Amino acid sequence: MIFIVGGAGYIGSHVNKLLSNEGYKTLILDNLSKGHEEFVKWGKFIKGDLKDKRLLARIFKEYDINAVMHFAALTDVRESIQDPGSYYKNNVKNTLNLLDAMRENVKKFIFSSTCAVYGNPLEIPITEDHPCNPISPYGRSKLMIENILEDYSRAYDFNYVSLRYFNAAGADPQTEIGEWHEPETHLIPIILDAAIGKRENVQIFGTDYPTPDGTCIRDYIHVMDLANAHYKALRLLEEDKSEIFNLGNGNGFSVKEIIETCKEITGEKIHTIESKKRPGDPPILIGSSKKAKRILRWRPEFADIKDIIETAWEWHQKLNRETI
Ligand code: UDP
């Protein structure tokens, strides 16, 4: 059985779908602070929090868990600057509870890390050996766990894979699940909210970055491609190996380019306003996924940004038909 912590959230729920379709049994733990119970359509669900050490001990005793995947974290860079305490408690302290609880029983761990561990890149595309100098408490909290994993895995004899996601986007092509944050802070769903008239305009955070059109460039990677990398990482752990991988498409798109592509796909007018820079935002983040391609034999299937946004748009319309 695979224990998916945070499996009611955006990325965790897509991983749960994919693993379940591949025939794995899954157990989901989520405190539903960000996730949605409606997203747990596969496997067994326990509502609970990583703060609860007694619950964790009971879970590892009761269930035959073969591997742990850990998605439960706070992920908003801006919020992490305003309230670092919550980030260190949720992302670091609670993860330690999980690692301590699994120590005796489980030897395989997959960690949701982030390109925010790199900070302002010195070179593009970013490879895994690029120095890690995070510029936000969020990025630092994830790097702390990567460092802890290195020490723990050596001392307590387990293997782990840390996956540094670039910008997760898109949705399950069958539209059973997708992106749903409240409040929404991510660029693509915010633009799609403007397209359906739920929001008057889209703020562009910073227009004088050192990029061709002055707006930030990001590497958008489809959530199903991320899910597939977790499946492949699980197979790697079966070979008794620990690794860190970037997961991105290797292409960068500016905020303005994403807005234009959303206009094209939705056929709607999208009003924009130029706003101040958002603290903690590096100008360009583009990842090299060569290592994942080579070792995991992983290939993104949704390499075209239009395909990514198409699936996001299908899901976004469905979600808003059902929840408005
Ligand atoms: N962004 C923006 N307006 C918004 C939300 C985001 O201009 O309403 C920009 C943000 O500054 C960043 C990019 O879009 O450069 C992607 O932001 P998002 O929050 O989606 O992901 P992040 O890069 O923070 O993980």
Low-confidence stretches: none
- Main β-sheet description: 7 strands, parallel
What spatial order of strands do you see in the largest sheet?
3-2-1-4-5-6-11
Q: Would you list the SSEs in sequence order as H and E?
A: EHEEHEHHEHEEHEEEHEEHEEHH
Number of strands: 14
CATH class of the largest domain: Alpha Beta
How helical, in percent, are the residues?
40-55%
DSSP strand content: 15-25%
Please name the CATH architecture of the largest domain: 3-Layer(aba) Sandwich
Q: Give the tally of structural domains.
A: 2
Can you list the ligands bound to this structure? uridine-5'-diphosphate
Arithmetic mean of pLDDT: 97
Overall radius of gyration: 19 Å
CATH topology of the largest domain: Rossmann fold
Q: Whole-Å distance between the termini?
A: 36 Å
Which descriptor suits the 3D outline?
globular
Architecture overview:
The chain has 324 residues and is of the alpha/beta class. It has two domains: 2-168 and 221-247, Rossmann fold (3-Layer(aba) Sandwich), CATH 3.40.50.720; 187-218 and 250-323, UDP-galactose 4-epimerase, domain 1. The chain has helices spanning 10-21, 53-62, 77-82, 84-102, 137-156, 187-195, 223-238, 255-266, 290-296, 305-323; strands spanning 2-5, 26-30, 44-47, 67-70, 108-114, 159-165, 167-169, 202-205, 217-218, 220-222, 243-247, 253-254, 272-275, 284-285. A seven-stranded parallel beta sheet has the order 3-2-1-4-5-6-11, sandwiched between helices. A three-stranded mixed beta sheet has the order 12-9-14. α1 packs across α7 (223-238) and α8 crosses α10 (305-323). The protein starts with a strand and ends with a helix. The structure holds uridine-5'-diphosphate.
